[in-house]
Amino acid sequence: MTYVMSDLHGEYEKYLAMLRRINFSTKDTLYILGDICDRGKNSAMIYLDIIKRIKSKKYNIIVIKGNHEDMAEKHLRNLIEEFSTGDINPLELRSRKELWNWYGNGGEETVLSIFKECNEDRYLICNFIESLSHYQIAEVNGKKYVMMHGGFDIKPENATIDDIANLEPKELMWSCPEFDATYFNDDNTYLIVGHTPTIMLRVTLQEASIFRGKGNVIDVDCGAVFSDFCGRLGCLCLDTNQEFYV
Ligand SMILES: [Mn+2]
Fold first, then answer.
1. Could you give the domains of the chain?
2. From the CA of 107, how far away is ligand 1's center (Å)?
3. Which of 33, 197, 211, 212 is the most interior residue, by most CB within 10 Å?
4. Would you state the pLDDT for residue 204?
5. How confident is the model at residue 113 (pLDDT cuts 50, 70, 90)?
């Protein structure tokens, strides 16, 4: 089976619970549409688990880069080099202006997690984040799924799948689609994104669920880290259309 989830945001326990819930096995493929890090406390544990599974060559896990990986990537390697010996001083780091944008978006949790959980494997996480792709296309049961973290700004009626390869990575990581539009003029193709918590696409506050627009847009970011605001981790099976939640 092929599964899609997104925006884990350091929620390691929910990630593990979801793998158990879907009985994730070496026969399956899992797409994670970015924003594994920041806000939640255990980003490093998720990255290390994914890296371990990919390196074993037994598991098919494909991760797409999110805007939080984009922010992390700018600073992480420098911090790891700077503190290759000795400990970080969290308060001193908070005072660094160049980190404010990332820290204001939950980056401090990622830094603390990596410096607590990792030693020589800190660089593994850096290398992994830097290696991530910005979009993926999958075919399941004759249907095509174009996947990215955020979205893009081309008008839905003008967009073709070939356009995606020519877009700036920034656009794919930071944009949002028109959620009720039909993209690619094709009923057999779907656009799957994360990034925008689906709670924000509903009129009333209710337990978060996977959003399917009036056209062919699917948003799987159910706000795993926002459990105080009805968020949970969602996962979609592309073969059966079944939705899973933890
Ligand atoms: Mn995002």
1. 2-66+131-245 (3.60.21.10)
2. 13
3. 33
4. 83
5. very high
